[in-house]
Amino acid sequence: MIPVTEALARTAKGRLKYDSQWFEVGDIQRVLEECISPPHLSAGVLTKRSPEAGKTKSTSDSTEARSELAPKAEAPADNPAASRDYDSIDETQSFLEVFIIEAEERWSSKSKEAVERRRRHLEEYCQQVQRKAESQLQELQAQRDTLGHRQMQKLQSQEESRYRQQWRQQQELQSEHSRHARLLDDKLKHAEQIKAEEEIARLRNEESRIHMSSLITLEDQLERYRSSSEESLTGCQHLHLVDANRLGELKKVLILATNQLHNIMEEARNVRALQQHVEQLAALVDQLKAHQQLVQLVVADANAKADAIVQKQAEEQATRSREAKEKASHLKQGEPTIPSQVQAGGDAVLEASKESDNIQASDGQLLCVQEDAYQEYAQLQENMKAFEASFQHLVTSVEAKKFRFDIARAVNTPINAISPASGSHLRDKLQRICNLLSGQYVEVAGKRVAATDQPHGLSYVKNLLAKKLVRQGDGQVSSQHESAFAIAAVSSIVCQRFPDVQQLMIAHFYRKCPYLVPYYIPKEEGQSNEDHYRALGYEYTDSVVEKQDKFLNRMSGLMRLYAAILISSPLKNEHPYGIEHGWIWLTRILNLEPRADITATLIYDFLQVAGHTMMKIYGRQFQKLVHYLCYSYLSKIEAVTPQGSGGPVTRLKIFLQKCVKAGSIEPPTGLLPLGFWNT
To answer: Is the sign of the CA dihedral 541, 547, 550, 554 positive or negative?
Structure first.
């Protein structure tokens, strides 16, 4: 295959000779002549044709060339070259020169036309530019005017703002001056007030010191009278001859006097000793003085009765001896005899029966409490009083005041922090409480304190803890029902580990809410209304009894906490005070005649908290009990409910009807789930 360069070299153009140095050799004239001269045929072609033929042929070729080229050279009429007569062309000029001249003329005409168009376009453009410049000039002038106006307005606004700012600063300075003047005046008044208060406090402290000195003197007198009365009662060997009620009243007076003394002295030490305290304690001293005389009379009467009994026994012994002798003589004669003690025994049985009729109703039930329930209640209260007496010196001692304060903080801090946040949270609070009850040191507000720092300190702590847990019922639980279950969970485990705390808690429950026994405490003969209402659980503020709705709300909180303890789940072992006590309470209250408001309220709260658990445990038997409550006992409650105060009864009725219809009771809101202690 032939390469491209070689193939191009073989073409006609490729065989042409080009001389790149033609202008350097001096042949310029010859080259120009060749370019100007007309074309000519080669010698070879001329030899083959005749001159005539060649001439004819040349002429015809020229004519054809003209005819072909004439249309292409056609130009506008105003162009002089357009009217050129090709026949008149000088023979010395070649057609190439003619066409070149015509082309130059055409291009000259086109150039002139282009220049003219360019000139007109330039004029139009200049006019447009001038108009645009004038428009922009007007716009710039308008913008300058606008900008000047705006700057003027801005300057005016700045001037006005500066004026207003100066005016505000002046006003602020005046206000600050007035405020500073008032502040100085207030400081002066405050200083004067502090000085007056300090003077009043000094006078009060001086007065309190005098009153406290009087209180201490009266306390010593009262203690002597109380000790004398106790020694008289303790030293008497014939108290069994004294009427039990009377003896109980005598002991009750001593206990009440001791409690009142404790309350008065504690208030005086913790707050301030007042003349009122002195008067109260003086009245209490007079009361105990009279009581001491009464005790002496009772003891003397008991001794006289004992002497009379001894004398009577001696006489009876003599009588029996005489009767024995007479019997022996009658046996010999065959006559029957009737011993005198048989007749006396009959009278004693009749008297006991009369006394029993005054207290008991049919089937051994009391009118306001069942007999076994009352015995349990009385035993718990008596045990608690004895327990409180064991640490009485800690309550009254001035030296133990700091101990009481630290222990109270150690007890209140973990109990107030009990919440169902998590199981670990409750375990922490439980551990703090158990450490305190075990006599270990616990840290409170950067201090280490232990119950064993004082003699009988553990007893004081246990009683204080039990009282605090119970008080959570009428405090926190009464306003937030769901909190009962976390407090109950901690309480049940504490009772499991410390059984004496359980007994104290139940006793405090019964003291604050005797309806948990259940016990509708009757009014005693000669008892004031205030004492009776306090025994029923009411609270007084400035000698004014609390309103019924507040009382019912507190009792509701105590019942909910009590019921939550019954259904709580300890960590291990059996429940120390389980749901069986709930069955006992419910059957006991159904065996008593209902009271207005309180009976319906407590039954409703109990069933709402413990009803679900009791339904699971007792099943059909509990359903029967609920059915009886709904269709029999509820009518008794409605009968004793005054007109217009049926709120508790209505709630209980709706709840019971829902339970009977559904055949079940829903779990209470806030009940701790299974496995809560592991969270």
So the answer is: positive
